[in-house]
Design the sequence.
C-alpha cells in the first residue's frame, strides 16, 4: 500500500483542492445495496452466494451468528464517506463503534478490493464471495466484530465505549486526517463514551486532524430502547450543542420511505460536515504564527499570555451527524407476525430458524433478492463496473489506510539516560525520588520527539513527580483560559482528564496509528481500566497473527502513588492487584517491571519505549527512597531481569549454597528486605545470606511459559533447589506462587506482600500492618533456616525484634511519625 501523505509538510488541507469527480447518488445506493447483500450473506450462507440456484436449507449455516441491526447504517455511512473521499481526496479513517458490526465492515472492504489484496484466497468474484460468506463467525474463520483481521479497523467491537476516544487519539498530530467515528446509540450509554464527547477540548485544529462523530441512532440495543433515542429532538440538539458540536440531523427510512431521499439528506450532511471541518482548520492554520515545529512549547501559559483571549483560543464548534434510521433497515419487516425492522428484534439474526422453517427460508430468499444482486455483481460475481466510481484510489481507501494497517510508526529518538542518572556512591547510600528523576528524562524525550510522543494521565503528572515535562510543554487545552491558569496551551503534549478510560483510549488510538506515548496512574485506580486493558491486550495478540498489520509502539503504564506509600490517602488507595490481571494475558504480550530505584527505572523505561506490540506495566514510587545501583549496574541488572546483589548479602564462599535467600521485587519491599538482611548480618554474622532483587517479574516464570522466563537450571542457580527463600513482594503474595509453582524449590518459597491491611498511617506502619517490615522478614529467616530459631541467643533476638516492631507502632500512633531508628536507618555494606 502507498504511504500516507506527509502529515507534517504544511498546514494546508486536502479539502482546499477542487473536487476531482462527482459520484451520483444512484451509485451510492447501489454500493449500499451491495454491502447489505454481502452482510446478509455472511450471516446466513454457506453456499449459493449469488442465488444462482433456488435457496435450500442445506445452503444455510448450522449456527447463525452475527449482528444485522446496526449493519445497514454502517454501510450507508461507509458509502457516503467514500463519496466524499472520491470527490475531495480527504484522507479519512473509519472508526466503527457499534459492537458487532463486523459483517458490514468486511463487506465494504471486500467491495473496495482491499480485502482480496490482503487475503488473496478471498477473491473478488463469486468463488471468493462464497469463501467470504463461509468464514464469517465460522470455526477457523473470522470474528463477528470489527477485529484486527478487519482492514482499516483500529477499534474492536467487543466491549463498548471506546470508539470516540480512539478517534481523538488517532486525530492527534495528524493534521490532514478526518476520523469518522460511528457511535452506536447503545454504546452512547456507557460511561467511557459519555466522557469522550468533549475530547475536542484536547484537539488543536492548527496541528491535529478532525473527528467527525456520527451517532447511529437506530433506537434499540439488544432487548430494549436506548436513552438518546427517546429524548425529544430539541433536547438532543441542545445536549450536543452543550458538548461543543453543531448537530446535523439525518432522519429517514421509516414507513417504507424511498432510500434515495435518505441518501440526499446524508450526502448533504456529510458534505456540510467536511466543509465545516475545512473552515475550522483553515481559520486555525491561517492564524497560527509560523514557528519552528520542533521547538519546545511555552511551559507556563496564563491568562494574559499567549492564547488567553477566549474569543481567539476557545474550542470551536465542530460538526456532528445524528443518523436516525430503523434498526435492521431493509431487513424483514415482520417475522411470524411480529414486527422486526425498527425494533430490538433486528439486533442480531432476524430469521433464526431458516434451516428448519420453510417460511423463514422463503423470507430469507425474498430478503436477499430485494437487493437485486444481478444489478450489483456480474455473472462471475465481481462487483459491476459502475461501482468503481465509489471505490477510492488505493492510497485513500479507508480499508487501506496506512494509519490503521501497515503503520506509519518510526522509532523514538531517545536521549541518553546517563544525563539524568543518579550518582550512587560506593557506600550505596543516597536518597532520591525515582519518578522525579524519570520525569527529567521524560522531558528530554519530549524535546527530542515533538510531534509523535504524548503523555496521558488523570490529572496526576505533578502529583507523580513528572512535572519537569512542564518545562517544555503545557497541558493541551483548547477551551478558554482564565487568570491563574498554569501549564495550559492549545499545542501541549500532555493530555490530562479525570478519566482513566479517556486517557487510555486516546493513547490507544495514538499508538494504533503509529505514534508513541505513556499513561500514568495511581496504582489503585488503574483497575478502572481492567477490562479495557484486557481488550487491548487481546487486540495486540490477535494482530500479531495478521501479517499486514504493522507493529505498534507498546502501551506502557507507569503506576506510581503505589500501595505502600499512601500516607495521606489510606485504604481506598491501596491495591496492587492490577499486576494479577496483567500476568494472566498471553505471555507474548505482557511485561511487568518493578524497578527498585531511579536508575533502574530509567533503564526500564528506556527499554519499554523501544518495544513494540507489548503491554508494559512499570511500578515505581515517587517518595524519597534509597538509590542502590549506579547507572552501569542498573543497565546490567535491567538486562538480566533479576540478579544476586553480592554486596547486600553475606556469602563468604561463592562455592557454597547460602543458608537462606532473601528476595525482593519492588522499591519498598527492596528497602525492607535490605534492612532485614543488614539486621541478620549484624546479629548473626555466620549466616550465609544471598540477596536477590527482581526487576522483571516475568523472569520468575519458566522459559517454556514466557519469553522472559528463566530456564529451570538458571532459576535454581539463583534460588537454589532446597534452601529457604523469604520473598518480599510489592503485590499480593499469591502472585509469586502462581509464577513459580513449577520450580524445584517452590515448596521453600515464603512470600510476604500486601494482604489487604491498610489505612492512613506512616510508611513503616503500613509495611508492619502487612507483615512486610524488616523485623518480620528477619523473623521469617530465623524460623525457616533449619535449627536457627532454637540456637543459642536466638529466642532472645526474636523477642527483641518483635518488641522493636511494637515499639515502632506505639511511637507512630503517639507522635504521628515513624521513630528515628526507622527513618534514620542507613545501609552499611
Sequence:
Amino acid at each position: 500500500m502507498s504511504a500516507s501523505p506527509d502529515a507534517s509538510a504544511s498546514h494546508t488541507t486536502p479539502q482546499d483542492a477542487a473536487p476531482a469527480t462527482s459520484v451520483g447518488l444512484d451509485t451510492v445506493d447501489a454500493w449500499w445495496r451491495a454491502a447489505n447483500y454481502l452482510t446478509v450473506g455472511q450471516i446466513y450462507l454457506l453456499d449459493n452466494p449469488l442465488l444462482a440456484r433456488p435457496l435450500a436449507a442445506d445452503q444455510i449455516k448450522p449456527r447463525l451468528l452475527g449482528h444485522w441491526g446496526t449493519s445497514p447504517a454502517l454501510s450507508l455511512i461507509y458509502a457516503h464517506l467514500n463519496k466524499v473521499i472520491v470527490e475531495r481526496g480527504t484522507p479519512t479513517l473509519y472508526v466503527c463503534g457499534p459492537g458487532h458490526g463486523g459483517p458490514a465492515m468486511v463487506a465494504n472492504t471486500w467491495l473496495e478490493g482491499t480485502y482480496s489484496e490482503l487475503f488473496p484466497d478471498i477473491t473478488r468474484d463469486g468463488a471468493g464471495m462464497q469463501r467470504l460468506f463461509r468464514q464469517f463467525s465460522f470455526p477457523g474463520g473470522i470474528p463477528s466484530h470489527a477485529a484486527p483481521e478487519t482492514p482499516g479497523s483500529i477499534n474492536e467491537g467487543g466491549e463498548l465505549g471506546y470508539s470516540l476516544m480512539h478517534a481523538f487519539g488517532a486525530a492527534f498530530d495528524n493534521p490532514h486526517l478526518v476520523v469518522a467515528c460511528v457511535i452506536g446509540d447503545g454504546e452512547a450509554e456507557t460511561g467511557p463514551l459519555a466522557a469522550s464527547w468533549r475530547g475536542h477540548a484536547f484537539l488543536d485544529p492548527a496541528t491535529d486532524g478532525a473527528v467527525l462523530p456520527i451517532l447511529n441512532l437506530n433506537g434499540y440495543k439488544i432487548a430494549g430502547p436506548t436513552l438518546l433515542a427517546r429524548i425529544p429532538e430539541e433536547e438532543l440538539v441542545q445536549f450536543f450543542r452543550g458538548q461543543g458540536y453543531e448537530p446535523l440531523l439525518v432522519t429517514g427510512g421509516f414507513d417504507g420511505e424511498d432510500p434515495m431521499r435518505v441518501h440526499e439528506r446524508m450526502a448533504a450532511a456529510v458534505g456540510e460536515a467536511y466543509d465545516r471541518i475545512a473552515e475550522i482548520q483553515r481559520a486555525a492554520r491561517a492564524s497560527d504564527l509560523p514557528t519552528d515545529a520542533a521547538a519546545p512549547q511555552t511551559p507556563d501559559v496564563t491568562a494574559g499570555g499567549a492564547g488567553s483571549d477566549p474569543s481567539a483560543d476557545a474550542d470551536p464548534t465542530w460538526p456532528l451527524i445524528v443518523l436516525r434510521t430503523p434498526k435492521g433497515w431493509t431487513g424483514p419487516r415482520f417475522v411470524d407476525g411480529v414486527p422486526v425492522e425498527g425494533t430490538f428484534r433486528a439486533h442480531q439474526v432476524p430469521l433464526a430458524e431458516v434451516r428448519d422453517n420453510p417460511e423463514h427460508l422463503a423470507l430469507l430468499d425474498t430478503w436477499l433478492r430485494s437487493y437485486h444482486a444481478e444489478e450489483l455483481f456480474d455473472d462471475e460475481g465481481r462487483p459491476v463496473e459502475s461501482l468503481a466510481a465509489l471505490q477510492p484510489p488505493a492510497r485513500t481507501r479507508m480499508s487501506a489506510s496506512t494509519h490503521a494497517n501497515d503503520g506509519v510508526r518510526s522509532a523514538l529518538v531517545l536521549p541518553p539516560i546517563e544525563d539524568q542518572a543518579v550518582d550512587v556512591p560506593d557506600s550505596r547510600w543516597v536518597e532520591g525520588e525515582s519518578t522525579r528523576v524519570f520525569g527529567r528524562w521524560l522531558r528530554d524525550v519530549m524535546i527530542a520527539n515533538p510531534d509523535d510522543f504524548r503523555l496521558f494521565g488523570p490529572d496526576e503528572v505533578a502529583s507523580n513527580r513528572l512535572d519537569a515535562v512542564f518545562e517544555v510543554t503545557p497541558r493541551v487545552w483548547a477551551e478558554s483560559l482564565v487568570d491563574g491558569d498554569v501549564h495550559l496551551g492549545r499545542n501541549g503534549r500532555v493530555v490530562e482528564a479525570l478519566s482513566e478510560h479517556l486517557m487510555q483510549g486516546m493513547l490507544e488510538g495514538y499508538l494504533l496509528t503509529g505514534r508513541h506515548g505513556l499513561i500514568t496512574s495511581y496504582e489503585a485506580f488503574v483497575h478502572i481500566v481492567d477490562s479495557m486493558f484486557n481488550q487491548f491486550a487481546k487486540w495486540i495478540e490477535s494482530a500479531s497473527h495478521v501479517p499486514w498489520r504493522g507493529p505498534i509502539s507498546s502501551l506502557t503504564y507507569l503506576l506510581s502513588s503505589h500501595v505502600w506509600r499512601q500516607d495521606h490517602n489510606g485504604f481506598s488507595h491501596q491495591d496492587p492487584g492490577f499486576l494479577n490481571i496483567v500476568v494472566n494475558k498471553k505471555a507474548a504480550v505482557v511485561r511487568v517491571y518493578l524497578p527498585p530505584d531511579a536508575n533502574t527505572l530509567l533503564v526500564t523505561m528506556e527499554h519499554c519505549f523501544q518495544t513494540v506490540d507489548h503491554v508494559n506495566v512499570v511500578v515505581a514510587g515517587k517518595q524519597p527512597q534509597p538509590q542502590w545501583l549506579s547507572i552501569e549496574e542498573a543497565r546490567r541488572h535491567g538486562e538480566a531481569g533479576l540478579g544476586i546483589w553480592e554486596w547486600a548479602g553475606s556469602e563468604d564462599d561463592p562455592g557454597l549454597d547460602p543458608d537462606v535467600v532473601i528476595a525482593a521485587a519492588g522499591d519498598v519491599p527492596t528497602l525492607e528486605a535490605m534492612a532485614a538482611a543488614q539486621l541478620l548480618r549484624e546479629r548473626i554474622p555466620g549466616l550465609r545470606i544471598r540477596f536477590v532483587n527482581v526487576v522483571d517479574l516475568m523472569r520468575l516464570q519458566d522459559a517454556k511459559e514466557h519469553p522472559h522466563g528463566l530456564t529451570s537450571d538458571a532459576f535454581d542457580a539463583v534460588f537454589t533447589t532446597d534452601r529457604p527463600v523469604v520473598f518480599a513482594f510489592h503485590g499480593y503474595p499469591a502472585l509469586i506462587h502462581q509464577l513459580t509453582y513449577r520450580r524445584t524449590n517452590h515448596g521453600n518459597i515464603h512470600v510476604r506482600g500486601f494482604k489487604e491491611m491498610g489505612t492512613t498511617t506512616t510508611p513503616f506502619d503500613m509495611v508492619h500492618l502487612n507483615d512486610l517490615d524488616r523485623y518480620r522478614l528477619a523473623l521469617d529467616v530465623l524460623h525457616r533456616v533449619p535449627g536457627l530459631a532454637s540456637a543459642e541467643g536466638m529466642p532472645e533476638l526474636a523477642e527483641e525484634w518483635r518488641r522493636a516492631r511494637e515499639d515502632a507502632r506505639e511511637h507512630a500512633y503517639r507522635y504521628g511519625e515513624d521513630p528515628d531508628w526507622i527513618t534514620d536507618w542507613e545501609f552499611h555494606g
About this structure: Residues 14-287+317-400 form a domain with the Rossmann fold fold (CATH 3.40.50.970). The chain has three domains: 14-287+317-400, 417-625, 643-823. Residues 1-19, 290-313 have pLDDT under 50 and may be disordered. The first helix runs from residue 25 to 44.
